[in-house]
Design brief:
Number of strands: 15
Shape: globular
Mean pLDDT: 97
Structural class: alpha/beta
Helix content: 40-55%
Strand content: 15-25%
Number of domains: 2
CATH topology of the largest domain: Aspartate Aminotransferase, domain 2
Low-confidence stretches: none
CATH architecture of the largest domain: 3-Layer(aba) Sandwich
């Protein structure tokens, strides 16, 4: 177990009675991240890439240092493979609106999984509708709740242009075999787009082990600021893609007659970016690696399994994951005869923070024949006391609704 981590997080120190079990939605921020952003705004703030004075040069250096740090963190070959965006959603929309728009034609196919967050489902659905292409949705095994790899293999054909897959389900925590997904896609020349938003904060990531075409992540899921995301793309794709937006800081030359654009990644970063967001993620990565992703994963998995065990023992609680398949902090469940929103409300009144609803994954919720689900999500700052508080909250819920 990780000891003393809670003291690094001001929100948790300022709310000592809080059991924050909603990290899959967004994580709390440690002091070192907040301090890094504060220091930038107080002492080093200026716009980047334009000024030849010291503050601007320092800000530019910090911004690009973050790009290099993130590249090392995911083992990208070059910082130039990383495009800074607002979040995972914008990253995936960027891919769909550029190379997706140019590659997909009537009669083509796009393959997605039923586990996708709407961010990696709706852009492809809408592109397929616009282009007259077919959207193929691959299901999961109803027993294991893992991606059905046989169904995926049969879904990919020589008409498939993109295979879009989560690296960790935000509802189930399931982690598909991305190396096999990539192999199957590459066999037919399809490009891969991976949503790593829920994977990167909890599992070590080395993209050289599966070489995705595109991969997206969000800073706020991993202790960084909200409003900052990253798109990884292979060099040859980024070079061929048109800009997603146009404006300042992404141009090479503008005349009345025409405009030429900078090289990637600047080509995709129009306007003043969220400089402090980049700095926040740099600091967050340093913090996470100082603790160790392996230790973090082990810690949160142990808590999720403990909660699973205690909730199962209560009865009247439906747990969806087999305990031996839990390998991160995500724990979905429902309480018999009680709407998930009612459960979340009672827990909220007890300062126990969970998420209830469709979790921006309605196709998956429908596939599982549910109207909504409750999700407790544990992270590095949670403790066994948080598990006990969750169990006590569910016990109170059962007492209220099952008198």
């Amino acid at each position: 177990m990780l000891e003393g981590v809670q003291n690094d997080f001001p929100v948790l120190k300022n709310h000592p009675g809080l059991a924050y079990l909603d990290s899959a939605a967004s994580t709390q921020k440690p002091s070192v991240v907040l301090d890094a952003m504060d220091h930038f705004y107080r002492f080093n703030y200026a716009n980047i890439h334009r000024g030849v004075y010291s503050l601007s040069e320092q800000a530019t250096a910090s911004y690009e240092a973050a790009r290099m740090r993130i590249a090392r963190f995911i083992h990208a070959k070059s910082p130039e493979n990383l495009v800074f965006t607002r979040n995972t959603t914008e990253s995936i929309n960027l891919v769909a609106a550029t190379i997706g728009e140019s590659m997909v034609r009537e009669g083509d196919e796009i393959v997605v999984t039923i586990m996708e967050h709407h961010a990696n489902f709706v852009p492809w659905q809408q592109l397929a509708l616009k282009k007259g292409a077919t959207l193929k949705v691959v299901g999961i095994d109803r027993e294991t709740l893992e991606l059905d790899m046989a169904e995926l293999a049969s879904a990919i054909t020589d008409k498939t242009r993109f295979v879009c897959c989560t690296m960790a389900s935000n509802v189930l925590g399931a982690t598909p075999n991305v190396a096999e997904v990539t192999r199957l896609a590459r066999k037919f020349g399809a490009l891969t787009v991976f949503d790593a938003a829920q994977f990167v904060p909890h599992h070590p990531l080395d993209i050289t082990s599966f070489e995705p075409d595109f991969l997206a992540l969000s800073g706020h899921k991993m202790l960084g600021a909200d409003g900052f995301g990253v798109l990884y793309g292979k060099s040859e794709h980024l070079a061929s893609m048109p800009p997603f937006m146009t404006g300042g800081d992404m141009i090479e030359n503008v005349t009345i007659e025409k405009t030429t654009y900078s090289q990637p990644p600047q080509k995709f970063e129009a306007g003043t970016p969220f400089i402090a967001g980049a700095i926040s993620l740099h600091s967050a990565i340093d913090y996470l690696e100082n603790i160790g992703l392996d230790r973090i994963q082990e810690h949160e998995t142990e808590l999720a399994r403990l909660a699973d065990e205690k909730l199962r023992a209560m009865g009247k609680v439906r747990l969806y994951r087999n305990a031996n398949r839990i390998h991160n902090g995500i724990l979905p469940f429902n309480v018999e005869g009680v709407h998930p929103h009612d459960v979340a409300t009672i827990l909220g009144d007890m300062d126990i923070c969970v998420r209830a609803g469709h979790h921006c994954a309605q196709p998956l919720i429908h596939f599982m024949d549910e109207i909504a689900m409750i999700r407790a999500s544990f992270y590095l700052y949670n403790t066994e006391e948080d598990v006990e508080r969750l169990v006590a909250g569910i016990q109170k819920t059962l007492e209220v609704f099952h008198k």
